[in-house]
């Protein structure tokens, strides 16, 4: 084995070991070091400052999930346009065409989702 | 200045045809009139046919790489594409008969099947690991949804879909991490560059080994190699039978195509590293698949384990990594596609419209109740058992001889032994169909429409592959030598 | 192109089977008609091939016949094969490229070994169709289609000169036989069918692996291997194998053929298969399929691995001796007639293997020792003749059991008695067949067994005279096997005594609804040819087959001996 290769192995091992140690230690460290003065308000589940109205583990409408998914999908797909925009100047017409194809497919998907009623809350 | 990549429309056309058809069926399934929606299967079949024609043109094209080497349309890819198109077409036909009563929310199956087909085609033609990954995800996501399209038996179908999704995502993690390590080891994601770097000996040995191992695990999940097969029987059992038929053929073969691309096209110089691993996986897969199939009483589970076993045989060809191995993998892929689809089609027929769990005893007397179905299943089972002159024999022969050629005589011997074991459970079904009287009150089964076409098509395919045994190989050898 | 060609003869039954598949299953007359016409035509073709073969000069009757025009001066066939050429042009042979990339050809031919077996198969098939006509009533379309497919498979094995082709036909025969047992068989047919299939498949797959190894070692140095038997015989790839691989190859191929034959201790599938198979199935199974095993020993194993044959020949002899005595003893204990005949097959196929095993032991001494050569050839002559005789006699016995079973629906020996009084003609034929089987002189079985035993003893004696190893063992084992002859006589005589002689059993008549009829026309037509063959071979064996066989094995043994450097 070449020397630089064995160093890389060591590096990989060290990185892995560190990750393991830190990840497993953190939860315990906070409970060891932190002061403990519990109060009713502190023990409530965190809801951005609003007083919670129900149990945190209660059922949630699946519509939230669908909406979140749709947001993620279209949001992430739009992220692809950033590198395209950055490289656009160097790539010319070809890139325009590519982006159009991409957006067209995205649009078809959007239409489909719309028609199938995913944007309507009370369907 | 950025170099605009070479785009050879001809090599790209098969994909375009499938994607466009997929989009059209998707739009129609939401916006179309009842009448248009009834025509969805036909539109899907038409699109696949167009893609097939484009593929034949692409196969005869002078060049086989497009998008700066991202797509590699060599003989191997074309062969796999043909298999995928046929598989998808047959599944579309089956869905046309067996999904039409399930209600509006199931009409997307055609679009999903076409998208999955496109994903599989990308995997087989991938010249770059990113393309391979995109193909894999396109295929997998479509499959996760299809697995949940269980109609009246939502529960087991949902369970199957969830199981498939979780384990599939898990496997994808391995795959991506493996690709990252491979990139780290060689500095490239392009298959050709990786191959050059590995051959030049300038790849980092450790990262390369771990990367390949992770990739093998990731794809091992997809093709259901033991010990990454645990999801397969449950998912196959719970999914709608039409989807199971597709799942047992398309994604599995696409996984092997991807495996061939990675292990052979990219990492052949490192064969000494992955060969023993794959040999062990193949042996364990053949043994576990066949032994577990022995005790199954649910026909879908039985076929699931049998498909695991077949993955083991195909893995032998990948392991050998030589010309015979490639011929074996390609020939077996086509053979297995027809045989497996025939078997699942008969399961659909025997099940009627109930879509309930099918106990193997319900096949009793099928020879009298549905002679065509019983004959097809018999051909499928005898073929899968590898009895000459049916195509399964030549396929196994090529795979085993590839293993012997690569010096793995003991591995081939275990494969042969497993074939013998498989005869027992395959022929048990034949016994039930022909040698035992029908269950009380069982009625004649009429086979009609698309299902009949699909059944006849699988039979014809098997016979074409079986009878003039020589020509597929001759054809293939010519192609793959390019 | 001559009409009486090997290829046409082999594939004609397949065509018949396909035609039958196209006939609607209601049209029983046409189905039977097509089956009859096909088998008779095949018989005629096979006779035509035999006549053509008989007219050839004796050197052209060899499969490895090389015309003088092909060999340039100073060249030899062996050297030509090593250069990748195929100089052999057997007179009735055919060779076409099939999958040349993998060294696979469509290569067929006949010689003095295969021809008698081909005739046996085609004759028995005609008889089977005659016999089945009035007897089989269920799903007759598939019944005849499977039999015709089986005929192509059997003929294919006998004519193949390419190992891939050989294996293909060897395996194809399994499926129709599986269905014949499984659909038209007795009460435990499913068990018997799958057992038959699995046993045979294990063996043949082991053989496939061994053949693959031989194939790969025949290539190398950038050359594709070959599956041509004739080329392999000259190339002797096993010489290039290292370590225990040649031995493994030997045992792999041995297992394939030994299970098919079946040799002790691989015989346990046979009684089940025979008992459950329909009569016609048993006939073909005993008459022809078992011979595929022994034929394979001579056609494949000995030419491919003569060295290993010589090393392991003594084990073959020992197993054969056990099979002979064990088979006879078990047959004696049977209460079921069909099972008795089945075990008599184990016993009789033991004689075949005894002859072959003895010849294997001293292959390299054959060229230099005329006495030994003569004795070995005699042993092999006996073995091959026994294949034919067993095919005729045992088929006849199975027909006899089937004929009576159709009326009484029992095969238990204890249910019968005094048949002589009720069915005199049946009983007469039964006696001829049983006597032939137990080896009564002037009937076929005797000639074969006599040759085997004299051949084996003489081989042992001349080997002892030449101071060769293992001669004593061979003589002792042969002597031990003679015990089997006595036992065979005992169980057949006892069988005849119990079912033919004595008082007529009341129960027997009741089971047959009060009346047992004697031979019907179709039963006559089935049995008379077999009786004639039995008697003719018994009286003039030489003119009928023995001379043909003798030319074949003298040549083969001499050639193998020379190859081993004798």
Largest sheet of chain B: 2 strands, antiparallel
Radius of gyration of chain C: 23 Å
Q: Identify the most extensive interface between protein chains.
A: B-C, 32 and 30 residues
Given helix and strand content, the structural type of chain C is mainly alpha
Percentage of residues in helical conformation of chain B: over 70%
β-strand percent of chain C reads under 5%
Number of strands of chain B: 2
Please bin the fraction of helical residues of chain C: over 70%
Number of helices of chain C: 22
* SS content category of chain B: mainly alpha
Give the DSSP E fraction of chain B (strand runs of 2 or more residues): under 5%
SSE pattern of chain C, N- to C-terminal: HHHEEHHHHHHHHHHHHHHHHHHH
Shape of chain C: globular
Q: What form of chain B results from the Cα inertia axes? A: globular
Largest sheet, spatial ordering of strands of chain C: 1-2
The oligomeric state of the chains shown is heterotrimer
Q: What distance separates the N and C termini of chain C?
A: 41 Å
Report on the structure:
The complex is a heterotrimer of chains A (123), B (482) and C (566). Chain A is mainly α and 123 residues long. Chain A contains 5 helices and no strands. The model of chain A has no long low-confidence stretch (mean pLDDT 82). Chain B is mainly alpha-helical. Chain B has a two-stranded antiparallel sheet with strand order 1-2. The radius of gyration of chain B is 21 Å and the shape is globular. In chain B, 62% of the residues are buried. In chain C, α4 runs antiparallel to α21, α14 packs antiparallel against α15 and α17 runs antiparallel to α19. A two-stranded antiparallel ribbon of chain C has the order 1-2. The longest helix of chain C has 39 residues. In chain C, β1 and β2 form a beta hairpin. The two termini of chain C are 41 Å apart. Classes of the chains: A mainly alpha (123), B mainly alpha (482), C mainly alpha (566). At the B-C interface, α17, α18 and α20 of B face α6, α7 and α8 of C.
């Amino acid at each position: 084995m070449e020397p630089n290769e064995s160093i890389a192995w060591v590096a990989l091992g060290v990185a892995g070991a560190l990750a393991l140690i830190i990840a497993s230690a953190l939860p315990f460290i906070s409970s060891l070091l932190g002061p403990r003065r519990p109060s009713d308000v502190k023990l409530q589940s965190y809801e951005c400052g609003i007083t919670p109205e129900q149990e945190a583990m209660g059922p949630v409408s699946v519509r939230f999930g669908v909406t979140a998914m749709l947001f993620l999908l279209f949001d992430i797909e739009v992220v692809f346009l950033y590198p395209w925009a950055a490289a656009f100047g160097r790539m010319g017409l070809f890139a325009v065409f590519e982006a159009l194809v991409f957006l067209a497919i995205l649009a078809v998907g959007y239409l489909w989702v719309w028609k199938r009623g995913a944007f309507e809350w009370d369907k | 200045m950025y170099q605009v990549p070479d785009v050879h429309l001809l090599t790209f056309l098969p994909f375009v045809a499938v994607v466009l058809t997929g989009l059209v069926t998707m739009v129609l399934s939401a916006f179309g009139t009842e009448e248009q929606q009834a025509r969805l299967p036909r539109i899907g079949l038409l699109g696949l046919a167009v893609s097939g024609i484009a593929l034949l043109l692409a196969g005869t094209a002078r060049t086989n790489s497009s998008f700066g080497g991202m797509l590699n349309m060599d003989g191997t890819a074309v062969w796999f594409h043909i298999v995928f198109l046929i598989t998808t077409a047959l599944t579309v036909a089956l869905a046309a008969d067996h999904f039409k009563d399930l209600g509006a929310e199931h009409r997307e199956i055609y679009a999903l099947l076409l998208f999955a087909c496109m994903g599989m085609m990308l995997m087989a033609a991938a010249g770059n690991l990113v393309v391979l990954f995109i193909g894999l995800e396109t295929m997998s996501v479509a499959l996760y949804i299809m697995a949940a399209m269980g109609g009246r038996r939502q529960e087991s179908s949902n369970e199957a879909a969830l199981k498939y999704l979780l384990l599939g995502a898990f496997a994808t993690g391995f795959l991506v991490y493996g690709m990252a390590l491979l990139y780290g080891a060689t500095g490239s994601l392009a298959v050709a560059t990786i191959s050059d770097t590995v051959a030049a000996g300038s790849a980092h040995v450790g990262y390369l080994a771990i990367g390949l191992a992770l990739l093998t695990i990731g794809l091992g999940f997809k093709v259901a190699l033991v010990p990454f097969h645990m999801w397969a029987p449950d998912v196959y059992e719970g999914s709608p039978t039409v989807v199971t038929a597709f799942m047992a053929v398309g994604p599995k073969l696409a996984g092997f195509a991807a495996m061939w691309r990675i292990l052979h096209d990219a990492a052949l110089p490192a064969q000494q590293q992955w060969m023993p691993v794959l040999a062990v996986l193949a042996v364990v897969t053949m043994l576990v698949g066949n032994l577990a199939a022995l005790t199954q009483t649910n026909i879908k589970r039985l076929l699931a384990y049998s498909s695991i076993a077949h993955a083991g045989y195909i893995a032998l060809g990948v392991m050998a990594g030589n010309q015979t191995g490639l011929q074996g993998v390609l020939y077996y892929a086509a053979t297995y596609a027809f045989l497996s689809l025939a078997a699942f089609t008969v399961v659909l027929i025997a099940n009627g419209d109930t879509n309930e769990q099918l106990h193997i005893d319900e096949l009793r007397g099928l020879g009298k109740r549905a002679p065509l179905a019983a004959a097809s299943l018999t051909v499928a089972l005898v073929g899968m058992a590898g009895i000459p002159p049916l195509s399964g024999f030549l396929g196994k022969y090529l795979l085993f001889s590839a293993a012997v050629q690569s010096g793995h005589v003991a591995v081939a011997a275990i494969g042969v032994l497993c074939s013998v074991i498989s005869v027992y459970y395959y022929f048990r079904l034949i016994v039930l169909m022909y040698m035992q009287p029908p269950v009380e009150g069982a009625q004649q089964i009429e086979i009609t429409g698309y299902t009949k076409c699909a059944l006849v098509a699988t039979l014809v395919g098997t016979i074409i592959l079986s009878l003039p045994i020589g020509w597929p190989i001759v054809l293939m050898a010519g192609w793959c030598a390019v | 192109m001559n009409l009486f060609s090997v290829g046409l003869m082999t594939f004609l039954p397949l065509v018949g089977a396909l035609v039958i598949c196209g006939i609607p299953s209601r049209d029983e007359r046409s189905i039977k008609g097509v089956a009859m016409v096909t088998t008779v035509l095949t018989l005629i073709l096979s006779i035509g091939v035999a006549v053509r073969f008989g007219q050839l000069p004796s050197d052209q009757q060899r499969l490895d016949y090389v015309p003088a025009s092909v060999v340039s001066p100073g060249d030899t066939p062996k050297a030509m094969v090593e250069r990748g050429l195929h100089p052999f042009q057997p007179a009735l042979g055919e060779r076409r490229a099939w999958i040349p990339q993998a060294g696979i050809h469509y290569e067929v031919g006949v010689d003095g070994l295969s021809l008698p077996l081909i005739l046996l198969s085609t004759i028995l098939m005609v008889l089977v169709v005659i016999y089945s006509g009035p007897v089989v009533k269920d799903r007759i379309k598939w019944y005849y289609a499977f039999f015709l497919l089986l005929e192509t498979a059997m003929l294919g094995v006998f004519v193949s000169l390419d190992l891939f082709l050989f294996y293909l036909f060897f395996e194809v025969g399994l499926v129709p036989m599986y269905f014949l047992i499984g659909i038209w068989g007795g009460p435990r047919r499913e068990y018997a069918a799958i057992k038959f299939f699995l046993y045979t498949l294990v063996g043949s797959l082991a053989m496939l692996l061994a053949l693959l190894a031989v194939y790969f070692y025949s290539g190398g140095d950038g050359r594709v291997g070959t599956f041509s038997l004739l080329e392999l015989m000259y190339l002797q790839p096993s010489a290039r194998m290292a370590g225990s691989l040649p031995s493994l190859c030997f045992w792999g191929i041995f297992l394939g053929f030994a299970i098919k034959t079946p040799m002790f201790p691989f015989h346990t599938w046979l009684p089940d298969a025979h008992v459950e198979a329909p009569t016609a199935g048993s006939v073909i199974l005993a008459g022809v399929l078992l011979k595929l095993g022994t034929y394979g020993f001579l056609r494949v194993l000995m030419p491919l691995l003569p060295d290993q044959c010589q090393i392991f020949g003594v084990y073959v002899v020992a197993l054969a001796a056990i099979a002979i005595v064990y088979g006879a003893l078990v047959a004696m204990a049977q209460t079921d007639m069909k099972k008795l005949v089945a075990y008599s097959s184990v016993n009789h196929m033991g004689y075949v293997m005894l002859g072959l095993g003895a010849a294997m032991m001293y292959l390299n001494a054959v060229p230099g020792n005329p006495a030994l050569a003569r004795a070995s050839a005699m042993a092999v002559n006996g073995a091959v003749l026994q294949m034919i005789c067993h095919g005729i006699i045992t088929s006849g016995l199975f027909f006899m059991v089937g004929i009576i079973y159709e009326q009484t629906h029992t095969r238990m020996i204890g249910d019968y008695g005094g048949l002589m009084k009720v069915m005199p003609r049946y009983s007469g034929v039964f006696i001829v067949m049983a006597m032939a089987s137990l080896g009564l002189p002037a009937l076929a079985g005797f000639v074969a067994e006599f040759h085997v035993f004299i051949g084996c003893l003489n081989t042992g004696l001349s080997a002892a005279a030449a101071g060769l190893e293992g001669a004593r063992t061979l003589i002792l084992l042969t002597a031990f096997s003679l015990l089997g002859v006595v036992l065979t006589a005992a169980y057949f005589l006892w069988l005849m005594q119990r079912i033919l002689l004595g008082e007529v059993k009341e129960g027997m008549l009741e089971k047959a609804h009060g009346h047992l009829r004697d031979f019907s026309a179709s039963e006559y037509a089935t049995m008379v040819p077999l009786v004639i063959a039995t008697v003719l071979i018994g009286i003039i064996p030489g003119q009928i087959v023995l001379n043909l066989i003798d030319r074949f094995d003298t040549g083969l043994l001499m050639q193998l001996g020379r190859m081993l450097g004798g």
